[in-house]
Protein backbone atom coordinates (compact mmCIF):
# COMPACT_ATOMS: atom_id res chain seq x y z
CA UNK A 1 0.00 0.00 0.00
CA UNK A 2 1.19 3.51 -0.81
CA UNK A 3 2.46 5.37 2.25
CA UNK A 4 0.67 8.72 2.26
CA UNK A 5 1.60 12.14 3.51
CA UNK A 6 -1.59 13.28 5.21
CA UNK A 7 -1.96 17.06 5.33
CA UNK A 8 -3.68 18.16 8.58
CA UNK A 9 -6.33 20.58 7.33
CA UNK A 10 -6.43 22.50 10.61
CA UNK A 11 -8.52 25.48 9.47
CA UNK A 12 -11.52 27.00 11.28
CA UNK A 13 -13.82 27.28 8.25
CA UNK A 14 -14.60 25.43 5.02
CA UNK A 15 -13.76 28.55 3.02
CA UNK A 16 -10.21 28.73 4.38
CA UNK A 17 -9.67 24.97 4.04
CA UNK A 18 -10.87 24.91 0.43
CA UNK A 19 -8.92 28.07 -0.48
CA UNK A 20 -5.81 26.30 0.80
CA UNK A 21 -6.57 23.18 -1.26
CA UNK A 22 -7.30 25.20 -4.37
CA UNK A 23 -3.59 26.10 -4.53
CA UNK A 24 -2.87 22.48 -5.49
CA UNK A 25 -2.92 21.68 -9.22
CA UNK A 26 -5.98 19.68 -10.29
CA UNK A 27 -3.89 16.58 -11.09
CA UNK A 28 -2.11 16.53 -7.72
CA UNK A 29 -4.34 14.44 -5.48
CA UNK A 30 -3.43 14.42 -1.81
CA UNK A 31 -4.78 12.96 1.44
CA UNK A 32 -6.02 15.48 4.01
CA UNK A 33 -6.96 15.08 7.64
CA UNK A 34 -10.22 16.73 8.69
CA UNK A 35 -10.36 17.02 12.46
CA UNK A 36 -12.98 18.07 14.97
CA UNK A 37 -12.62 21.84 14.53
CA UNK A 38 -13.25 21.89 10.79
CA UNK A 39 -15.83 19.07 10.83
CA UNK A 40 -17.90 20.67 13.60
CA UNK A 41 -17.71 24.08 11.91
CA UNK A 42 -18.44 22.96 8.36
CA UNK A 43 -20.41 19.72 8.73
CA UNK A 44 -20.22 16.59 6.58
CA UNK A 45 -20.33 18.65 3.36
CA UNK A 46 -16.64 19.52 3.89
CA UNK A 47 -15.87 15.83 3.26
CA UNK A 48 -17.67 15.81 -0.07
CA UNK A 49 -16.20 19.19 -1.04
CA UNK A 50 -12.69 17.83 -0.53
CA UNK A 51 -13.47 14.53 -2.27
CA UNK A 52 -14.99 16.31 -5.26
CA UNK A 53 -11.57 17.93 -5.81
CA UNK A 54 -10.09 14.41 -6.09
CA UNK A 55 -8.49 14.29 -2.62
CA UNK A 56 -8.73 11.45 -0.08
CA UNK A 57 -10.00 12.15 3.44
CA UNK A 58 -8.79 11.03 6.85
CA UNK A 59 -11.71 11.90 9.15
CA UNK A 60 -10.19 12.30 12.61
CA UNK A 61 -13.08 12.46 15.08
CA UNK A 62 -11.57 10.20 17.79
CA UNK A 63 -14.79 8.48 18.85
CA UNK A 64 -15.09 7.24 22.47
CA UNK A 65 -18.52 6.30 23.82
CA UNK A 66 -20.55 3.20 24.68
CA UNK A 67 -20.23 0.47 22.03
CA UNK A 68 -23.75 0.88 20.66
CA UNK A 69 -23.35 4.64 20.16
CA UNK A 70 -19.93 4.23 18.53
CA UNK A 71 -21.24 1.52 16.21
CA UNK A 72 -24.14 3.75 15.08
CA UNK A 73 -21.88 6.76 14.56
CA UNK A 74 -19.37 4.67 12.63
CA UNK A 75 -22.17 3.41 10.40
CA UNK A 76 -22.71 7.05 9.38
CA UNK A 77 -18.97 7.66 8.89
CA UNK A 78 -18.69 4.42 6.90
CA UNK A 79 -21.05 5.83 4.28
CA UNK A 80 -18.87 8.90 3.59
CA UNK A 81 -16.22 7.16 1.50
CA UNK A 82 -13.34 8.40 3.66
CA UNK A 83 -10.04 6.50 3.65
CA UNK A 84 -9.21 6.57 7.39
CA UNK A 85 -11.04 7.36 10.60
CA UNK A 86 -10.18 7.21 14.33
CA UNK A 87 -11.40 5.82 17.64
CA UNK A 88 -9.89 5.84 21.16
CA UNK A 89 -8.35 2.50 22.14
CA UNK A 90 -9.21 3.31 25.77
CA UNK A 91 -12.84 2.47 24.92
CA UNK A 92 -11.86 -1.21 25.08
CA UNK A 93 -12.23 -4.34 22.97
CA UNK A 94 -16.02 -4.38 22.71
CA UNK A 95 -16.19 -0.72 21.65
CA UNK A 96 -13.37 -1.08 19.12
CA UNK A 97 -14.97 -4.14 17.54
CA UNK A 98 -18.32 -2.30 17.42
CA UNK A 99 -16.59 0.62 15.67
CA UNK A 100 -15.26 -1.68 12.98
CA UNK A 101 -18.62 -3.40 12.58
CA UNK A 102 -20.37 -0.06 12.13
CA UNK A 103 -17.83 1.16 9.56
CA UNK A 104 -18.11 -2.01 7.47
CA UNK A 105 -21.93 -1.98 7.61
CA UNK A 106 -22.11 1.70 6.62
CA UNK A 107 -19.65 1.28 3.76
CA UNK A 108 -21.45 -1.79 2.48
CA UNK A 109 -24.82 0.00 2.52
CA UNK A 110 -23.34 2.89 0.52
CA UNK A 111 -21.36 0.67 -1.85
CA UNK A 112 -18.01 2.24 -0.91
CA UNK A 113 -14.75 0.81 0.48
CA UNK A 114 -14.72 0.72 4.29
CA UNK A 115 -12.33 3.25 5.85
CA UNK A 116 -9.24 1.97 7.64
CA UNK A 117 -9.86 2.17 11.37
CA UNK A 118 -7.00 3.73 13.33
CA UNK A 119 -6.90 3.65 17.12
CA UNK A 120 -5.61 6.48 19.26
CA UNK A 121 -3.33 4.94 21.88
CA UNK A 122 -2.07 7.55 24.33
CA UNK A 123 -2.25 11.12 23.04
CA UNK A 124 1.19 12.67 22.68
CA UNK A 125 0.03 15.28 25.21
CA UNK A 126 -0.17 12.48 27.83
CA UNK A 127 2.97 12.39 29.95
CA UNK A 128 4.09 10.06 32.71
CA UNK A 129 2.32 12.09 35.43
CA UNK A 130 -1.00 12.18 33.56
CA UNK A 131 -0.75 8.45 32.87
CA UNK A 132 0.11 7.42 36.44
CA UNK A 133 -1.92 9.98 38.42
CA UNK A 134 -4.90 11.07 36.31
CA UNK A 135 -5.50 7.82 34.44
CA UNK A 136 -4.17 5.56 37.23
CA UNK A 137 -2.33 3.46 34.63
CA UNK A 138 0.98 2.29 36.11
CA UNK A 139 4.15 1.87 34.03
CA UNK A 140 5.47 3.94 31.16
CA UNK A 141 3.67 5.77 28.36
CA UNK A 142 5.42 3.53 25.83
CA UNK A 143 4.23 0.34 27.60
CA UNK A 144 0.66 1.67 27.56
CA UNK A 145 0.94 2.60 23.86
CA UNK A 146 2.16 -0.90 22.97
CA UNK A 147 -0.58 -2.46 25.09
CA UNK A 148 -3.24 -0.39 23.31
CA UNK A 149 -1.75 -1.31 19.92
CA UNK A 150 -2.13 -5.01 20.81
CA UNK A 151 -5.70 -4.40 21.94
CA UNK A 152 -6.47 -2.51 18.71
CA UNK A 153 -5.04 -5.29 16.58
CA UNK A 154 -7.05 -7.92 18.50
CA UNK A 155 -10.17 -5.79 17.95
CA UNK A 156 -9.92 -5.59 14.13
CA UNK A 157 -8.45 -2.10 13.89
CA UNK A 158 -6.13 -1.53 10.94
CA UNK A 159 -3.53 0.50 12.78
CA UNK A 160 -2.79 3.20 15.31
CA UNK A 161 -1.81 6.84 15.44
CA UNK A 162 1.48 7.00 17.28
CA UNK A 163 4.73 8.87 17.63
CA UNK A 164 7.35 7.92 15.05
CA UNK A 165 9.49 7.07 18.07
CA UNK A 166 7.04 4.30 19.02
CA UNK A 167 6.38 2.78 15.61
CA UNK A 168 9.21 0.26 15.73
CA UNK A 169 8.12 -1.09 19.13
CA UNK A 170 4.54 -1.38 17.83
CA UNK A 171 5.56 -3.23 14.68
CA UNK A 172 7.70 -5.60 16.76
CA UNK A 173 4.80 -6.25 19.14
CA UNK A 174 1.93 -6.66 16.68
CA UNK A 175 3.38 -7.09 13.18
CA UNK A 176 4.77 -4.86 10.45
CA UNK A 177 1.50 -4.93 8.48
CA UNK A 178 -0.32 -3.03 11.27
CA UNK A 179 -0.36 0.63 10.27
CA UNK A 180 1.57 3.13 12.38
CA UNK A 181 0.55 6.59 11.19
CA UNK A 182 2.74 9.26 12.71
CA UNK A 183 2.21 12.99 13.47
CA UNK A 184 4.91 15.16 15.05
CA UNK A 185 6.91 15.30 11.81
CA UNK A 186 9.13 18.24 10.91
CA UNK A 187 11.45 18.61 7.92
CA UNK A 188 14.99 19.39 9.06
CA UNK A 189 14.53 23.01 7.92
CA UNK A 190 11.24 23.69 9.78
CA UNK A 191 10.51 24.91 13.31
CA UNK A 192 8.98 22.41 15.73
CA UNK A 193 5.99 24.66 16.75
CA UNK A 194 4.39 23.12 19.87
CA UNK A 195 5.37 19.53 18.98
CA UNK A 196 7.62 18.12 21.70
CA UNK A 197 9.30 15.09 20.16
CA UNK A 198 9.69 15.59 16.43
CA UNK A 199 11.21 13.45 13.70
CA UNK A 200 12.14 14.29 10.13
CA UNK A 201 10.28 12.53 7.28
CA UNK A 202 13.43 10.58 6.42
CA UNK A 203 13.91 9.41 10.01
CA UNK A 204 10.22 8.45 10.26
CA UNK A 205 10.54 6.44 7.05
CA UNK A 206 13.57 4.65 8.48
CA UNK A 207 11.67 3.93 11.71
CA UNK A 208 8.97 2.16 9.67
CA UNK A 209 6.20 4.78 9.72
CA UNK A 210 3.34 3.85 7.38
CA UNK A 211 2.14 7.41 6.81
CA UNK A 212 2.89 10.94 8.00
CA UNK A 213 0.46 13.50 9.39
CA UNK A 214 1.86 16.97 8.75
CA UNK A 215 0.08 20.27 9.30
CA UNK A 216 1.83 23.60 9.75
CA UNK A 217 5.04 22.87 7.80
CA UNK A 218 2.73 22.65 4.75
CA UNK A 219 -0.35 24.72 5.65
CA UNK A 220 1.67 27.72 6.93
CA UNK A 221 4.42 27.50 4.31
CA UNK A 222 4.93 30.42 1.94
CA UNK A 223 4.66 27.90 -0.94
CA UNK A 224 2.48 25.02 0.35
CA UNK A 225 2.60 22.94 -2.85
CA UNK A 226 6.38 23.16 -3.01
CA UNK A 227 6.62 22.33 0.71
CA UNK A 228 4.42 19.27 0.12
CA UNK A 229 6.56 18.14 -2.83
CA UNK A 230 9.81 18.63 -0.88
CA UNK A 231 8.52 16.60 2.07
CA UNK A 232 7.26 13.90 -0.34
CA UNK A 233 10.74 13.66 -1.87
CA UNK A 234 12.37 13.32 1.53
CA UNK A 235 9.76 10.73 2.59
CA UNK A 236 9.90 8.61 -0.56
CA UNK A 237 13.68 8.55 -0.85
O1 LIG B 1 0.84 21.26 12.48
P1 LIG B 1 1.25 19.89 12.91
O2 LIG B 1 2.12 19.18 11.91
O3 LIG B 1 1.84 19.86 14.29
O4 LIG B 1 -0.13 19.08 12.95
C1 LIG B 1 -0.18 17.74 13.37
C2 LIG B 1 -1.59 17.24 13.32
O5 LIG B 1 -1.61 15.95 13.89
C3 LIG B 1 -2.58 18.08 14.11
O6 LIG B 1 -3.85 17.97 13.44
C4 LIG B 1 -2.61 17.38 15.46
O7 LIG B 1 -3.82 17.56 16.13
C5 LIG B 1 -2.45 15.93 15.02
N1 LIG B 1 -1.95 15.03 16.05
C6 LIG B 1 -0.74 15.22 16.70
N2 LIG B 1 -0.34 14.33 17.64
C7 LIG B 1 -1.09 13.29 17.94
C8 LIG B 1 -2.31 13.07 17.29
C9 LIG B 1 -2.70 13.98 16.33
O8 LIG B 1 -0.02 16.17 16.42
N3 LIG B 1 -0.67 12.42 18.83
Describe this structure in words.
α9 packs parallel to α11. The longest helix is centred in the middle third of the chain and has 18 residues. This protein has 237 residues and is α/β, with parallel strands linked by helices. 45% of the residues lie in helices and 16% in strands. It starts with a strand and ends with a helix. The protein is globular, with a radius of gyration of 17 Å. The chain has an 8-stranded parallel β-barrel with strand order 1-2-3-4-5-6-7-8, surrounded by 8 helices. The relative contact order is 0.13. The protein has one domain: TIM Barrel. Cytidine-5'-monophosphate binds next to β8.
Quick recap:
The chain is of the alpha/beta class.
Number of domains: 1
Task: Provide the list of bound ligands, each named once.
Answer: cytidine-5'-monophosphate
Shape: globular
List the strand order in the largest sheet: 1-2-3-4-5-6-7-8
What does the radius of gyration come to? 17 Å
Report on the biggest sheet: 8 strands, parallel, barrel
State the helical fraction. 40-55%
Which stretches are poorly predicted, pLDDT < 50 over at least 5 residues? none
Which structural class is indicated by helix and strand composition? Answer: alpha/beta
For the record, the CATH class is Alpha Beta
Could you give the distance between the termini?
16 Å
CATH superfamily annotation: Aldolase class I
Question: In sequence order, what are the helices and strands, one letter per element?
Answer: EHEHHEHEHEHHEHEHEHH
Amino acid sequence: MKRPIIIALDFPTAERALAFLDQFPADLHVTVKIGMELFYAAGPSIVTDVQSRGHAVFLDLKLHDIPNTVESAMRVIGRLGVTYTTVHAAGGHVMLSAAKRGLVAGAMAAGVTAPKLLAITQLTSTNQAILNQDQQIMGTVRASVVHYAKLARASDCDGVICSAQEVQAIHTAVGADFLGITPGIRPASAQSDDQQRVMTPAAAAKAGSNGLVIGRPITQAAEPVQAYRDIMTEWSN
